[in-house]
């Protein structure tokens, strides 16, 4: 048996913009091993959500979307499965947590009945066992009065509480893979830490793999084994978390990291920013996607797309600066 749980191969996700098919995800390769936590970072509009939602075909409802490539989950290509098969996988072998909890919770059922259903259906528990486990999960996500919450409807709860219920639901079926897209952004810092701790525990105890999408580099440093940096639909750098923080190579990664106060900025100095903003899909540059904002870009960068090169074991960079030094292309 292979140790790879998810392998995305040359994934393109295209939407029609001004009568042309344009890629929001543009040739992404990504592999997650069993028990591995992979972080995905990048500014708004870099394709993190489109990429992660495509794994469970959550963009199929867009009237126009086109996929190319493969998404192999335990060896099966999810892009080729019928949607009813994908629904069976969702909430059982793969769970998702998104920023907006109401997309995952039913407004007409109590929190308890929704959580119990997951547990009876996927874990084979009886009613009593399911109730006990549901209350335990609610407690683990930091809900102060879980017995009471069990009886409530989602609309009776605050946004932060709804978020925690959704997290409890996603984790209670003990998935093999958790996809978490900015799962804690709406929560206050102490609760955020509690949720990250819960994810870490399930990873260590059950070997749950995680695809963790975030803007929070601190959370990446605390939780993830390795990191992919995305820019305009592409992975521009990937490495182990330690390597990426110690030796960021892509000018974009360097820019992202220098925006964190304690890394590379002296006290009292203003935070640097990456100049300019992420262009819309219709304005993606021809050559290196980052060239319009890169201080090091030259004519060659503007005209030709750089290859992804492995500069050290597991450390891959998509930038001409490293390609030219004759490093191995992947
Ligand atoms: N249905 C659609 N039609 C056209 N373009 C789309 C569609 N859905 C998403 N996009 C575009 O795809 C790009 C990637 O969006 P995505 O939501 O994946 O970014 P993101 O990295 O998750 O950003 P954020 O950090 O803000 O969540 C954006 O340019 C977005 O406008
Ligand atoms: Mg997003």
From TrEMBL:
<dbReference type="Pfam" id="PF00005">
    <property type="entry name" value="ABC_tran"/>
</dbReference>
<dbReference type="GO" id="GO:0016887">
    <property type="term" value="F:ATP hydrolysis activity"/>
</dbReference>
<keyword id="KW-1003">Cell membrane</keyword>
<keyword id="KW-0547">Nucleotide-binding</keyword>
<dbReference type="GO" id="GO:0005886">
    <property type="term" value="C:plasma membrane"/>
</dbReference>
<dbReference type="InterPro" id="IPR017871">
    <property type="entry name" value="ABC_transporter-like_CS"/>
</dbReference>
<dbReference type="InterPro" id="IPR050388">
    <property type="entry name" value="ABC_Ni/Peptide_Import"/>
</dbReference>
<keyword id="KW-0067">ATP-binding</keyword>
<dbReference type="InterPro" id="IPR003439">
    <property type="entry name" value="ABC_transporter-like_ATP-bd"/>
</dbReference>
<comment type="similarity">
    <text>Belongs to the ABC transporter superfamily.</text>
</comment>
<dbReference type="GO" id="GO:0015833">
    <property type="term" value="P:peptide transport"/>
</dbReference>
<protein>
    <submittedName>
        <fullName>ABC transporter ATP-binding protein</fullName>
    </submittedName>
</protein>
<keyword id="KW-0472">Membrane</keyword>
<dbReference type="Pfam" id="PF08352">
    <property type="entry name" value="oligo_HPY"/>
</dbReference>
<feature type="domain" description="ABC transporter">
    <location>
        <begin position="6"/>
        <end position="257"/>
    </location>
</feature>
<dbReference type="GO" id="GO:0005524">
    <property type="term" value="F:ATP binding"/>
</dbReference>
<keyword id="KW-0813">Transport</keyword>
<dbReference type="InterPro" id="IPR027417">
    <property type="entry name" value="P-loop_NTPase"/>
</dbReference>
<dbReference type="InterPro" id="IPR013563">
    <property type="entry name" value="Oligopep_ABC_C"/>
</dbReference>
<dbReference type="InterPro" id="IPR003593">
    <property type="entry name" value="AAA+_ATPase"/>
</dbReference>
